[in-house]
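Lecture 7 notes: from sequence to structure.

We start with a single chain of 298 residues. Read the sequence below before looking at the structure.
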Amino acid sequence: MENFILIFICLGCGMFLQRRAVFADNAPLTLNLYVIWVALPALILRQVPTLSFSTDLFVLLVMPWLMTGLGALLVWGASRLFSWSTEVTAVLLLTVPLGNTSFLGIPMIEAFFGTEMISYGIIYDQFGSFLALSTYGSFILALYSEQERQSVRNIAKKVLTFPPFIALLTALLFAPVLRQPAIAASLSLIASSLVPVVMFAIGLQLKIRLAPGQTFPFCFGLTVKLLVAPFAALLICQLAGLDGPASSIAVFEAGMPPMVTAGAMAMSAGLAPRLTAALVGWGILLSFATLSFLSLFL
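Now the structure, written as tokens:
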């Protein structure tokens, strides 16, 4: 319960101070940079060395790519059927397949399943969502915003120099060292700042106004992302006979709302910014209810 209270307090404080204009406009960016460069790497360095690798982890590597493909296919089909504009299609192709499996996913895993399950979420996020953002997301952005397509080399460089990914490789290579009590305790203290900082930063940039004339694409996108995707993931796990903790986290992560970073990419390219903000903002708020409902099946 204290995890939920912490999340709502920090989120509420961020939303309140956004209205009061207390913080500078770039405050969310600064806080997000702290999370990317300090808090999240510390959490990865603390949790990954405690992970016991087995074939059960395979679902964490495959599921995010299946969900990316499913989301893209459903959006593409709906766009053709309902003749959505290029901007609307591009926004949905970025925000529906890609989930907020890191900034929101890790705090929600801790709240629903406990700290010991965070390492599974890290594997799902770093080897799935982040790689999908770097490859699939870059392709969609270049395709619809008329930007120059990124080369394989540039994409690989982006992946290999991403601080959490570097932390993940470090954690895998130096696990015995990172398990030392003094180091583990220090990393835990730094990592404990992740949840409050993330939720406060989300509150500072949360936009919940719907864009006129875009209600149906908005409802379609969130329905697919918050309900269709996770229950499709649950069905896949059941058909494959997977019922361990790794599969539970894979299904739970599949139900995360649209990725904030994917939304930021769409808005930076000028692709239907109000629809993008509404999908990200309302997605976060509604996910508290949908994830609670989803957890009943896990």
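Residues 118-145 form the longest helix (28 residues). Keep this in mind for problem set 3.
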